[in-house]
């Protein structure tokens, strides 16, 4: 066995950063989803966002804008995580200690989840472009 | 990602760490971990395998009861215009069937499996809160029995497992039936939440040294996601049920549209629970499948990271699906699209899982044993259920088939195909570990094929008859609509399915008498539970394993190999704290030793606490409020008894010697890390409950043109501001008390806690006085109901904080905090709770007092 668990103290102690990397995509989608749904439900009941903006229903315009902002943020996260992943890949240290192995796992996970939830944001936002208001 | 195809044969039979020695009652470690005998032993047993088996047996019993309900329903529907059941009895039986399967079978049995398996699979000696697990079991059993006792009182609930309002309100469902549904199942929901907390902390903090989260078994990952989902799903249901019970018993108006309430609010709250509930059942099954497939394919799983991420993605997405049960309610179309999108998206992680299993099987050398047959059956059936799931995610299609038998077919393919089949695979796979008997293979094959054929005969025709227009939840149908033949086939299939299940029971009994001995690892499996004896000895591992691989039983010929320091620690733990139940806490991400702590031992307090809860709920069902009050006081006394600190079983000198030698803190009065996690989760549960209440508040606001309604004055702001000011001052005092105990000054801590107590009490008094001046009753309007409810909840939470404060002062006065570096966990937790409640107070009262002016 090349490495025993305790020989190497973790070189990467940024635990909260690793959790953030892993869960950035899902958390962003959750926020987007809740805000978007609340706006749609309240807006369509006539409490908020009545009227038109540039000839389009205000609720649709706001939701499209929200989608674009969320998508930009999500893709930004993915880009950053991708950079981190490439940095880890460049590390020629073939014999990873436990903390490094775990970090690679979480960064890869962040990448997968970031991509998936970017797609989820896009898919959720498209109907606002197509439907005429509520 | 693992790519090795073959499992090294030399690794199939390993020498399990420490499990090699036969144990006798003379073994001091065994004595330390054993449960007492006799009736007191039955009531106080805390061993995870004893507890897990009890939960499994109880849940399976409810499964058989729910199945009998279903058979009677099928008999009624076999032919047109049947009169076997009256419409009322039919309604009662489908309500009991659905509620039993959802609340009393699937969720509990999956939690039972988790409690049974996790300590062994994670290389630990116990769950972190064995007594909480025991409490969870007794409340589950009590709730289930109470639910079925409704037959004795001829008060069987009859409004479906979803209990839609207004049908479920007192006006349309008088009598006790709905109270049984709400309160008996409420007890079981508390059990589920308690189990969720236990499972989360077990997985995050009690793994073997070296088991970083990237090496965790996939079952543990699935259960981790599931346990968080349990908290996020069951707490809203409890809150929603509370509102309904208040409407039924105390005349509030939360769901009454005539008085400003909203029936749709119940649907929202119920399905915020109800849809994730499907995945709460499915994800543990996914974890089981991911453990079993590689063993019977004789190769490592394909795509470990993808499977983990699929589980996490499913956990998040499942909370964005709830409105797809409400597509026909009349919500704005734009709002529906959010849920349609999420419903379609969730097919992606589920598809990834399927491809991963298929690829593993494809690249392996399958061994066609019974567990594997059930897995293959699962893959086939779940894909079918998944495809129809995508269909009903499309809004226009759902409008066509909503409330038809097509939907019945869909969710049974998902729940029986996707959950029950993996459960049977798991029973065949893991029971030998706990009985030391392998179930009979021939009977197992018959069991599988009868279930598989019976299931498809039952539920496939329902797709067709649903598309032909047959509605669900209607007790009979006229002849000549073309539905007859499908119903006859479905009933025949149901009985074949029942025979298959009966065969499992026969197999279980037969194999206990004549089954082959299982030994430690009958399947040549890769995970740690197969390293311990079958059945496991009370302490599981004598020497804790040191994990260096995702497949320790395949890759590590010696499980206890590791660095000198770790080896010394694990060996020391097998010898030194022999008089008390020592367990290792490890770091959340990397699995490094963090603390040694004393796990709770056998105790009757959890049983008595469950009895207290039962008394409260029974009192409420029969509207005997004084009985409920007595139960509450009894429960409070039990909780104090449960947490009463006792003297450490070891001297300070011994503790310090061990800490010096191994460089790890020893906490004989409770783990700091585990205690902190439990308090964070408690705060999270409170937060979820409050967010649900605020969601209800704003949703009802949405349903009303004016807020507050005409005839009710908006509240004055100054009393709320004074109360908030006093509470903020108390938060500062509590924080200062915490600082003083950390500085080693328990006397000053007591002083500041006393200041905080007085300030908190004053804030409460101001708020109570303000509400006493409110001149409307809770029955006047949903707004008034909300005012009383939000105040009541916040007062209870605050009183709980004051109670913690008082108890902490009491213990400080008794000298519990004389060694603050070891024992200030109670103070830290009381501080965290108080700060959280003050923040919650500001948010809730901000909403309550400002909304009338701002919206």
Structure description:
The complex is a heterodimer of chains A (134) and B (855). Chain A is mostly helical and 134 residues long. Chain A is built from three helices and two strands. Chain A is elongated, with a radius of gyration of 20 Å. Mean pLDDT of chain A is 82; it is low at 1-13. In chain B, 67% of the residues lie in helices and 2% in strands. A three-stranded mixed sheet of chain B has the order 1-2-3. Residues 1-24 of chain B have low confidence and may be disordered. The chains are: A mainly alpha (134), B mainly alpha (855). Chains A and B meet through helix 1, helix 2 and helix 3 of A and helix 9 and helix 10 of B.
Count helical runs of chain A: 3
Q: Portion of residues in helices of chain B?
A: 55-70%
Multimeric state: heterodimer
Lateral strand order in the biggest sheet of chain A: 1-2
Shape of chain B: globular
Kindly estimate the percentage of residues of chain A that lie in beta strands according to DSSP: under 5%
Mean pLDDT of chain A, to the nearest integer, reads 82
Our count of helices of chain B gives 27
Describe the sheet with the most strands of chain A. 2 strands, antiparallel
What are the SSEs and their pairings?
The complex is a heterodimer of chains A (134) and B (855).
Chain A: H1 15-44, E1 52-53, E2 56-57, H2 58-90, H3 98-130
Antiparallel strand pairs in A: 1-2
Helix pairs in contact in A: 1-2, 1-3, 2-3
Chain B: H1 28-33, H2 38-44, H3 48-77, H4 87-121, H5 130-148, H6 177-205, H7 218-250, H8 263-297, H9 304-317, H10 333-345, H11 347-363, H12 370-393, H13 395-401, H14 405-435, H15 441-467, H16 484-514, H17 552-555, H18 564-575, E1 582-586, E2 593-598, H19 605-621, H20 625-642, H21 652-662, E3 666-667, H22 672-703, H23 718-742, H24 746-772, H25 782-813, H26 820-823, H27 825-854
Parallel strand pairs in B: 2-3
Antiparallel strand pairs in B: 1-2
